[in-house]
Specification:
6-stranded antiparallel sheet, 68% helix, rod-shaped, alpha+beta
Length: 426
């Protein structure tokens, strides 16, 4: 089972994707609110600046048109007009600083529209030039300011400043609206992706977990009702696939053991009992030959009592003293250990060319051979031999056969004591 096929990995990946989309939506909503707030702040600042520029322009125009011509009126209006000019310019300067700070801190999602920053730079140049012209015109002496010259300078420069500010205001508002629309589109796209992820995750959860869990539950219910041997068909290599494989293994083992328990009770001969073992174990083990040996330690001989291929007609006795295979088998039977031969032909050629193994290989073409001891107290010793044509038995299969060997030894010992050795297996 690879990492990408793991249900845990797929589930974690799906949840991470959904969580990332949720966080993205929250971030986009936050950015949208920030953009709306910035748009409102820009609007207020720009409108206030425009109002103050217009008010200053009106004051300057009024002074140029109604400038006092005598000394008494001049001294009277000098203080009031100068203070008005100074106050309005200070407010405008403060608003410009605020606007500059807003533009410096403004971080839109894209920088496609560079016209905004160009207009802002032009507006700053115009403002700096207008202030410099005003300061030059009004002079350095605050007690004797040149109001007519200053007013003339303001009347000349403020319309240009006002026009540029209007253009800047329009550009900023349009640009901010574009940002809001872009954020709204991103929110819609992220919402669609989140909805798609949720639907896809629901489908995945149903098909990969719920439906397969129901299939496993239904199979367990059938096992509970006695329908042993049922298999869950699947091709997945994930956790539920492993669980299904384990269930199939348990079901096959249970079917084999239950069939042996039910049928061996009624066996009336060695051949019939071996035939029952053959029919019950072949679907689970995939074997192509089975035989029953009786081991006689006194005569140092082992006799093949029954099998399913007719090998007993060729050579049914095995020397346990002068034959390498026979000695190996006797040693394993005494210790109640399974003898495993992974390559029958190679083993035969390497260990004295046993006639028994030669006849077995010719009759069955078996590749792997397994000998399971059957020891019933000290009364009877034997072995069940099973052969597989190609593959090796799994550890689970070997473990099961090892566990039931003592129970099978009891049945075969009972049949041997009754002398019920009849016809060979068909």
């Amino acid at each position: 089972m690879t990492l990408f096929r793991s249900l845990q990995f797929q589930f974690a990946l799906g949840m991470t994707t959904i969580l990332a989309l949720v966080l993205l939506l929250i971030s986009l909503f936050y950015l949208q609110q920030q953009e709306v707030q910035q748009q409102q702040t820009f609007s207020i600042t720009l409108q206030t600046s425009s109002d103050n520029i217009n008010q200053l322009h009106k004051t300057a125009v009024n002074y140029t048109q109604n400038a006092p011509r005598n000394f008494e009126n001049y001294r009277r209006d000098l203080s009031l007009t100068y203070k008005a000019f100074t106050k309005d310019l200070a407010v405008i300067d403060s608003l410009h600083n605020q606007l500059e700070t807003l533009l410096d801190n403004y971080q839109p999602l894209n920088f496609v529209d560079t016209k905004l920053w160009n207009i802002a730079a032009d507006y700053k140049k115009i403002c700096d030039a207008s202030v410099a012209s005003y300061q030059k015109s009004i002079g350095a002496d605050a007690n004797e300011p040149r109001l007519e010259w200053a007013a003339t300078s303001l009347v000349k420069d403020l319309p240009v400043m006002s026009e540029t500010l209007s253009q800047l205001t329009k550009t900023i508002i349009e640009f901010s609206k574009q940002q809001v629309v872009l954020l709204q589109n991103l929110i819609i796209s992220a919402s669609v992706l989140l909805l798609f992820s949720l639907i896809t995750g629901s489908i995945w959860f149903y098909t990969r977990i719920i439906r397969r869990t129901k299939a496993i539950t239904a199979a367990c219910e059938k096992i509970a009702k006695g329908d042993f041997g049922i298999q869950i068909e699947h091709q997945a290599k994930d956790e539920l696939g492993v669980l299904s494989d384990s269930f199939n293994l348990m079901s096959s083992q249970t079917h084999m053991v239950s069939k042996l328990i039910n049928d061996l009770q009624g066996a009336r001969s060695i051949e019939q009992a071996l035939n029952i073992f053959w029919a019950a174990s072949k679907p689970y083990l995939g074997i192509n030959w089975v035989g029953l040996l009786e081991v006689n330690e006194h005569s140092q001989k082992a006799k093949l009592l029954a099998d399913n291929s007719g090998i007993t007609n060729v050579h049914s006795e095995l020397d346990l003293k002068n034959n390498a295979f026979g000695m190996d088998m006797l040693k394993h039977v005494k210790k109640s250990r399974v003898l495993t031969i992974n390559d029958v032909n190679q083993y035969r050629l390497s260990n004295g060319n046993s006639r028994f193994l030669r006849d077995l290989h010719r009759a069955t073409l078996a590749k792997n051979l397994y000998v399971f001891p059957l020891n019933h107290h000290q009364q009877w010793h034997g072995a069940i031999m099973v052969a597989h044509p190609s593959a090796s038995l799994t550890p689970a299969q070997l473990d099961l056969l090892g566990k039931i060997s003592a129970w099978m030894a009891q049945h075969f010992s009972r049949l041997m004591s009754q002398g019920l050795v009849k016809d060979k297996i068909a």
